Amino acid sequence: MRIGIEVDLDYRFEQGADVLLQIEAASMYDQRIEDEQLTIWSDTPIRAATGEGGIGQRCWSHGDGHWRAQYRATVAIDRVTADFSALAATAPRDLTGDLVQYLMPSRYCPSDRFEGFVRHEFPDLEGGALAMALVDWVAESLDYDNAASTGDTTALDTFATRSGVCRDYAHLLVSLARAGNIPARCVSAYAPGVDPPDFHAVAELWLGGAWHLADATRMAGCGDIARVAVGRDATDIAFMTAFGTAEMLWQQVRVRQL
After folding, report:
1. Paired sense of beta strands 163-164 and 143-144, if any
2. For residues 61 and 42, is the Cβ–Cβ distance under 8 A?
3. Which of 82-86, 92-96, 188-192 has the lowest mean pLDDT?
4. Widest CA span of the chain, in angstroms?
5. Is residue 111 within a helix (H) or strand (E), and if so which, with residue range?
6. Side by side, which strands form the sheet with 200-207?
């Protein structure tokens, strides 16, 4: 699978503010960057910074007045779609230090609040079988609704309203997986077929000694997803974090299969 990515961001900063961008596709073992170009219109030089866990690249910029960014890339994805339903669980005591954080509650994923639900609803499942059941449950229980959430919506809110956007699906799946002792992280990504076209968010679950992508919205297949960044929740993977007030003038994300 090869995908073409086009991103245009057009913002205004009435007062100067530093901006942390995460819009560049990550170069990884299962996805290769064939070509890419990031252009930022700013009077301040940009600076690269390594992404969470060494995955992907963040970019520091500064917005003051009219600020624009443009990203173009072609990514080749070579990833086998795995059936992780039969994969074994890893006992918490056997997890390496870098994985432990993905078993803990976080700002948007209060997984400790879901432990009773997971035990009650899926009492005989663990590992890959539990993961598959959780993906199916989230996919079938939520309605996709662009107006259902805000930047403050947590997995608990989504569980209560049973609706949300892709980041809400990812937050809820990650929370339920952690509650079932499966390390899970959120992933910002590009994928063709996302409706409406936008930055996408999915989950990644640690099973059988490896990370496995899962999109509970069912808009993207494992072999179609190009990762941008990974982290505990939306705090770590947001495409743009402005350390000040930003006004969006125009924004467009287009991803197509080549």
Report:
1. parallel
2. yes
3. 82-86
4. 59
5. none
6. 210-214, 200-207, 184-190, 226-231
How many whole angstroms from its chain centre is CA 198?
A: 12
Other CB atoms within 10 A of residue 37 CB: 9
Domains by residue range for the chain, with CATH: 2-78+239-257 (2.60.40.2250), 84-237 (3.10.620.30)
Mean local confidence (pLDDT), 101-119: 98
pLDDT tens-place string over residues 43-86: 889 999 999 889 999 999 999 999 999 999 999 999 988 788 88
- Structure tokens given for 149: 């959430």
Of residues 112, 110, 129, 128, the one with CA closest to residue 211 = 128
Q: In sequence order, what are the residues at sequence separation of 6 or more whose Cβ sits closer than 8 angstroms to the Cβ of residue 94?
A: none
Residue 195 CA to residue 199 CA, distance in Å, equals 10
Q: Is the pTM of this model over 0.85?
A: yes
Reading the block at residue 114, the tokens are 């879901």
DSSP string, 203-245: EEEEETTEEEEE-TT-SS-GGG-EEEEEESSHHHH-SEEEES-
CB neighbours of 120 closer than 8 A, spacing ≥ 6?
none
Residues 6 or more apart whose Cβ sits within 8 Å of residue 134: 118, 122, 173, 176, 177, 180
pLDDT in tens, 144-173: 999 999 999 999 999 999 999 999 999 999
Q: Please state, as a whole number, how many other Cβ atoms lie within 10 Å of the Cβ of residue 182.
A: 25
Assess whether the previous peptide bond of 105 is cis (omega < 30° from 0): no
Query: In angstroms, rounded to a whole number, what is the distance separating the alpha carbons of residues 256 and 148?
Result: 27
